[in-house]
Design brief:
20% of the residues lie in helices and 22% in strands. The protein starts with a helix and ends in an 11-residue tail after the last strand.
């Protein structure tokens, strides 16, 4: 797997507005938000995507969802709702080859997904 911008953020070589960090997970505000709340939640382990992850990665990938739930609660968006999005591969819109979960909320969100 080639070096990604996310690995540089994990190593603190590139600044990010971090909202959560532990030994396995890092969560930070997206620099190009598409919603009032737009957090990226990533494993520190370089996993390219859901399509290429190993079965052994299931625990850390599951933990990403728990972190998303907790951040949503902390940011007070749980009650009204939020969206979780993982893009997989080029046709799925994945731009960085490092698994990441988008936590989107803070407004009513549409379902606009159209072929390009």
């Amino acid at each position: 797997m080639a070096e990604t911008v996310f690995q540089k953020i994990i190593r603190k070589e590139i600044p990010a507005d971090i909202v959560y960090e532990d030994g396995d997970i890092l969560a930070f505000k997206d620099i190009h938000p598409i919603a009032p709340v737009h957090i990226l939640i990533i494993p520190k382990k370089p996993i390219e995507s859901i399509a290429t992850m190993d079965d052994a990665d299931a625990l850390v990938v599951g933990k990403i969802f728990l972190v998303a739930r907790n951040i949503a609660r902390d940011l007070k968006i749980s009650e009204k709702g939020y969206k979780l999005l993982i893009r997989v591969g080029k046709d799925g819109g994945q731009e960085v080859a490092h698994l990441h979960l988008h936590l989107l909320g803070g407004a009513r969100l549409s379902e606009n997904i159209h072929p390009v």
